Amino acid sequence: MKHQLDYLDELEAEAIYILREVAGQFEKPALLFSGGKDSITLVHLAEKAFRPGKFPFPLVHIDTGHNFIETIEYRDAMVKRLGEKLIVGHVQDSIDQGKVVEQKGKNASRNALQTVTLLDTIAKHQFDACIGGARRDEEKARAKERIFSVRDEFGQWDPKRQRPELWNIFNGKIHKGENVRVFPISNWTELDVWNYIRREKIELPSIYFAHKREVITRNGQLMAASPFLNMDAEDIIESRNVRFRTVGDMTCTAAVESYAYHIDDIIEEISASKISERGARMDDKVSEAAMEDRKKGGYF
Amino acid sequence: MDILKFLTAGSVDDGKSTLIGRLLYDSESILADQLEALHRSNRKNDDGSIDLAILTDGLKAEREQGITIDVAYKYFQTDKRKFIIADTPGHIQYTRNMVTGASNANLAIILIDARKGVIEQTIRHSFLVALLGLPQVVVCINKMDMVDYSEEVFDKIVSDYKTLAAKVGLKNVNYIPVSALKGDNIVYPSLNINWYRGDSLLHFLENVDIEVDDSTAHARFPVQWVIRPQTEDLHDYRGYAGRVSSGSFKVNDKVTVLPSGFSSTIDKIELLDEEPEEAFAGMSVTIHLKDEIDISRGDVLVNSQYQPEVSQLIEADLCWMDTRALDTSLTYFVQHNSKVTRCRIQETLYKVNINTLEKEYNGEFKLNDIGRIVIKTAEPLAFDLYQNNKANGGAIIIDSRTNVTVGALMLRGVVE
Hints:
The complex is a heterodimer.
Chain A: H1 7-25, E1 29-32, H2 37-50, E2 59-63, H3 69-82, E3 86-90, H4 91-96, H5 114-125, E4 129-131, E5 148-151, E6 179-182, H6 190-200, E7 211-218, E8 221-224, E9 238-244, E10 254-257, H7 263-271, H8 282-285, H9 290-296
Parallel strand pairs in A: 1-2, 1-4, 2-3, 4-6
Antiparallel strand pairs in A: 5-6, 7-8, 7-9, 8-10, 9-10
Chain B: E1 2-9, H1 16-26, H2 32-40, H3 60-65, E2 72-77, E3 81-87, H4 95-103, E4 107-113, H5 120-131, E5 136-142, H6 151-168, E6 173-177, H7 201-207, E7 220-227, E8 239-243, E9 248-250, E10 254-258, E11 263-270, E12 278-280, E13 284-289, E14 300-303, E15 309-320, E16 332-336, E17 339-353, E18 358-360, E19 370-383, E20 394-398, E21 405-414
């Protein structure tokens, strides 16, 4: 009898395998939680990997202070249900300490500042491995990313010196001060994540589903009107039916017009989609090599 | 629906990137804004059509040079199957990249330029695919449009390749005449070729059988992590967490822990709230045994009746991946699944010139060299011969000074 795993089962099993490798190889791992669907999926996978034991790592949230309130509420409810540890690094603290300077201008966002707070949080807690929900299909520079991505003490990523990953053997050996970023859902596509969420009935922050929101149009995209966004007289606020396809900060995440109230609708919308997931992220549009440059600077 | 992982072996000039681009484009896996970027780019083909190769370039340096320098993973799916493409460079200096990309592939697409036929590079790629034990090969004879879609040209190349395939030991080879540029036989059957009645590439990829090793004889479970909640209600709970790397395990199976050799019986198999009777290759589960034995990460549970080799002196094929040459006086680390131990390369037997397939003796193993060696490990490894069980026959060598992975090993036998 042939035992062929269904693709979602195979992807799930691979992610669990990777999470357990992190647990086995590192002294102080952490799971970076953003409140987005990818990191929420990671938490669900961590439950499958480690229950009935506790997670061998805390959840870490780098809070820019510009989050959707729905994301924060979701995060807090989730942590309470799990009974696991949450560590929050605040970008505001980095700003107050003079380590980073708030961007100015209409397109200002705190996205780039996160890196400094992230590196500081890693250094403070001496995390040697950070698990994140990045996927290879998201964006060109991520297509080459390893599952175990070694970063130097500045969090920097040198594309020319990544380790070959053979078979299912992951080499996580590092020197003191170095850090590894681990991406258990590297091989999952956006559609895979949504199909998995549907199959597992994973709850998500409401902003992923269609709702009425006040938005402005900026560079051809819909942005949520919020106190964090630098608006001026030119920006006209309208009430539209939207949902967020990806969840970053309120200042850098664009909404799409949508009536997808249910997960089935979302999956259908994505399958027929006209814009790739990260196309809605203003932070990637800055230049063609934006993601690559940010990774070299220590970003996720 | 399942997943097919395949390697694409060819070079820039063979049109490999265009082939992949065409697969993605014609199967409608490109999303609109990626398409937009494609049209916006000023890289065009001679006939003015968009250069689909852009879809697979990732890093800045490559985009500038127009050559890929790493293993790039691309994803697409049809309603039949999900696909993961490992795209690797074709030049000899990137042999290590191809070995890496091939290690996880179920199938290889070997690209041949119809104008050139079987060349040195073809020999090299075919050798590597055979070395890494890929069970299926598709030879795409590309640029058929440039040889007037000649059946004679195609047949000659097929004949030459069959000789090569026999020489390197490749079975299960299929041949498809294509033009990635024009779209012939990639997704849609060619309107220009009426003498070929076989599948288009995509149709083949969607329907090819993927081998699954679920035999009891190969039941192997490397332990990654021990789950011990040690709470009040779960005081005695002790689960061995890992992924079945090959074969299958059932509740009540008699299993042996290696390398210690202690035995027990499977009491329970768990996956979160489920308790399946059986776990087979690829499944990540938690196994409970009837007896309390000392088991930790790095140990392997196997079916007691069908045990793998256990040895500290092993003959293996090695692909050297470091810019510093292999140093037989140096102590390295070897990692075999979850087990890491010290090792030394005791003897280098021969190297293989992968362009000519001739053996060479008395040479250093430098970057991208491939050959046969004997490795001595500090602790015994519980392994299967790579040709019989890939999941339990591969290992990596790590440089203890830099922690970098410097070699790939295919374990071939025990040395007495």
